[in-house]
Design a protein that fits this description.
The protein is α/β, with parallel strands linked by helices. 52% of the residues lie in helices and 10% in strands. The mean pLDDT is 96.
Length: 747
């Protein structure tokens, strides 16, 4: 372990929240860690009170200007730190305190004045688990190349030049003037904030202080000059954007190894730092996000292919993986842009991490993802250099904003067929009326009713999204982000509201595997085998299967379960999947872009499962549903080849935003040298069939069971959850049971 870092690690682990106190990772920003110097600024409550006073003074100003002034107030008054146990600065007030007088206030006013009916439907959708829907500001990747080249002062100067061009051309409207005023105010505040940090560093006498001071002086005055300054710049942008400005930064660099590599090469050639010193900086850098503890994980990606066909994997890529593994962390999470020509030594290093359940890795297959990007208008060059955002989403670098709105639950559509659109949990009519299920005379009639309910959820989600997304700039102006994007500056439009080439929006298909199982159970039990009637099945579901154990066992043992390569099941799965995609892909949205389908669940596999009643596949009310493109827990029983066959039947490239499959393997399957070959063969098979993202859980069932009974023996055991890792001991027992159930059936 790195000598200096090992002495400082515990301080960094307590930087953002105290590790010996209760912590809710979903509310990660609502905490403070070690104490800051009180003389450097105000408490959070004092800042909030100041923001309320400021809000009264700025209420008549354009929103970009009012928000920028709120951000400035926080940066002027927050406490700061230049700590002897860290190489990265401290920002005390990081719980998005501006929101009360900006985003939350403006969203509340907007919905109450302009969209009261839409707001009511959204509340019912969210409460029922039919659709998760809200304005999304959490999937942004700035143009890191511009940030590295220009720094904050250079970005401000570039914005001034574009403003001057518009003024000279007589094309500057009041709205555009506010756009540039917001950028000017916010970037000036950030530069002043860095100067505060620099001046504070000059007062320190500890060993790290001179390096801090030199770094901050350079970043105050221009672009980074070495790899440490580049990492500090990434960290500063992240903390200000995500924690003050309320725009999540969903990738650290345009490929972290790509963004930092020029500095790495130059520093080694010039003797600025040794390789070991750079590795130590990486340890401090990566540990920031581990300490923050975001439940979803903080992503960065590595690898990819150069225009000449060579791999982007470089010596820094290896160092990042080596440091990450040596730290033993699982956050930030790592996305690997994969193709079969990836250097074997690097791939084996990552695969060994995966099979050791050490680290948080997803493989993003370049060919399928490039085809997906090109399907909505990206060029080959744009697809080749695309960013990976969030968990594993695609995005054209520096020219795409893709919001996520509408986590549609097709299993709820199945439930609504049985309840005629009524949701008994919230006692409201949420779906449409498709008639009494017991009167349906054929499977075709049932299937048609299911598709109508499903279509209603999709179409209503699009209508609601179009209603509120026309106001995204008004709700939360993106001055900080917009200034990094050249096309936004050229157009003088907020990058989140028409300022980029691709202003897209995504609809998510959640729980598809379980929905397919439910539809197939109706077909098999009621119409093919006549084991029961729709009326009897309706009653069993209303009773949550209590008193209907024999019928439930037949439902659970239905041979037509998604994930097993069953021909008939996969055909229905493909048809249902294409039905969703045909109603989403290419539809015009409210921001001048299009809708894109996405096969991703986030935590909805639990949240929507909690709100969905018993379903015909044998699932009880409240149980989780399938995640991503994966099967219902415990229902894939024919091995990895059959699972891949079922997943590929969904045609991954029909999901242009992302498509992810979760594969579970036994530890014995992937042990030794042959195990690495097995993992690569699985990856290559998926890649060659245009799969997109693939992630692994490698488990021994008995270990999971023992870990559940004796958690103290397994403090570092990790599990892959949808698009991130978590410690097994932090996962609720009900979710642990689902992993154990699936592990028991893997072959």
């Amino acid at each position: 372990m790195f000598q200096t870092f090992s002495q400082d690690r515990s301080y960094i682990e307590n930087k953002f929240h105290k590790t010996d106190e209760p912590f809710d990772a979903y509310q990660r920003m609502a905490y403070h860690g070690y104490d800051y110097d009180e003389s450097t600024g105000l408490t959070d409550d004092e800042i909030k009170e100041g923001l309320r006073r400021l809000s009264k003074e700025t209420e008549d100003l354009p929103h970009p200007v009012a928000k920028a002034m709120a951000v400035r107030y926080v940066l002027e008054h927050t406490r700061i730190d230049v700590n002897e146990h860290d190489y990265f600065v401290g920002l005390y007030t990081w719980n998005r305190v501006c929101d009360e007088v900006t985003l939350e206030k403006w969203k509340r006013e907007l919905f109450s004045e302009n969209l009261p009916e839409e707001e009511a439907i959204m509340e019912d959708f969210n409460a029922s688990g039919a659709v998760g829907i809200w304005p999304d500001f959490d999937h942004v990747v700035p143009d890191w190349d511009s940030i590295m080249k220009l720094g904050f002062p250079g970005l401000r100067e570039r914005a001034r030049e574009y403003r001057k061009q518009h003024e000279e051309n007589g094309t500057l409207t009041d709205r555009q003037r506010a756009y540039f005023d917001g950028i000017e105010t916010e970037y000036t505040a950030i530069i002043a904030f860095i100067d505060r940090l620099y001046q504070y560093a000059l007062t320190k006498t500890h060993e790290k202080a001179p390096r801090y001071a030199a770094c901050l002086k350079h970043l105050r005055d221009g672009a980074p000059t070495d790899i440490y300054e580049a990492m500090q710049l990434i960290y500063l942008y992240f903390m200000i954007s995500e924690s003050v400005d309320h725009y999540q930064v969903r990738s650290l660099g345009n490929g972290l190894d790509h963004t930092l590599y020029p500095f790495y090469q130059r520093d080694l050639e010039n003797g600025t730092y040794t390789r070991e010193e750079i590795r130590e900086f990486l340890a401090y850098f990566l540990m920031q996000w581990s300490a923050i503890g975001n439940y979803w994980g903080q992503p960065f990606y590595m690898g990819g292919t150069n225009p000449d066909g060579s791999s982007k994997i470089n010596p820094l890529s290896h160092d990042i993986i080596d440091v990450y593994r040596e730290l033993g962390i699982f956050n930030p999470k790592i996305q690997i842009k994969y193709n079969p020509d990836m250097p074997v030594d690097f791939l084996n290093k990552v695969l060994d991490m995966v099979r050791s359940a050490c680290g948080d890795v997803v493989f993003c297959c370049e060919r399928g993802m490039m085809k997906a990007v090109m399907s909505y208008g990206g060029t080959y060059e744009e697809a080749l250099s695309m960013d990976i955002r969030g968990c594993y989403e695609t995005g054209v670098r520096a020219n795409e904003v893709s919001t996520t709105s509408g986590y549609v639950n097709p299993l709820k559509a199945v439930e609504f067929v049985f309840t005629d659109g009524y949701d008994p949990a919230i006692k409201k009519q949420v779906g449409i009326r498709t008639g009494a299920v017991e009167n349906m005379q054929s499977f075709a009639e049932f299937y048609t009713a299911f598709l109508k309910q499903y279509e209603y959820l999709v179409e209503t989600s699009i209508r609601l999204t179009n209603a509120f997304e026309q106001y995204m700039e008004a709700i939360n102006p993106s001055s900080l982000y917009s200034a990094t994007v050249t096309q936004s500056l050229e157009r003088a439009f907020d990058a989140y509201q028409g300022g980029v080439k691709f202003n897209n929006c995504c609809m998510l298909n959640c729980g598809l595997g379980t929905a397919v199982d439910a539809v197939m159970a109706v077909k098999y039990l009621v119409f093919d085998r006549k084991e029961t009637t729709l009326a009897e099945l309706k009653q069993a579901l209303a009773d949550n299967w209590e008193g209907h154990e024999v019928l439930r066992k037949k439902a659970l043992n239905c041979p037509h379960k998604f994930g097993n390569g069953d021909v008939q099941t996969d055909l229905y799965a493909e048809a249902i999947s294409k039905f969703f995609c045909s109603r989403v892909n290419g539809r015009k949205n409210a921001r001048g872009g299009v809708y894109k389908a996405i096969m991703h669940s986030a935590m909805q596999f639990v949240w929507q499962g909690n709100k969905t009643g018993a379903t015909p596949d044998g699932r009880r009310a409240g149980d989780e549903i399938s995640k991503n493109a994966s099967p219902t827990p415990g229902m894939d029983r024919n091995g990895i080849t059959a699972l891949l066959q079922s997943a590929i039947s969904l045609v991954p490239t029909l999901y242009p935003e992302s498509f992810c499959l979760d594969a579970m393997l036994h530890t014995q399957t992937v042990s030794g040298e042959k195990g690495l070959v097995v993992l690569k063969s699985i990856l290559d098979s998926y890649y060659l069939q245009d799969g997109m993202s693939l992630q692994f859980n490698v488990f021994d069932t008995e270990v999971l069971k023992d870990a559940q009974k004796n958690p103290q023996k397994y403090p570092n055991l990790q599990v892959r959850i949808c698009g991130w890792n978590a410690l097994w001991n932090t996962v609720p027992k009900k979710e642990q049971d689902a992993y154990i159930l699936r592990a028991e059936t893997i072959r």
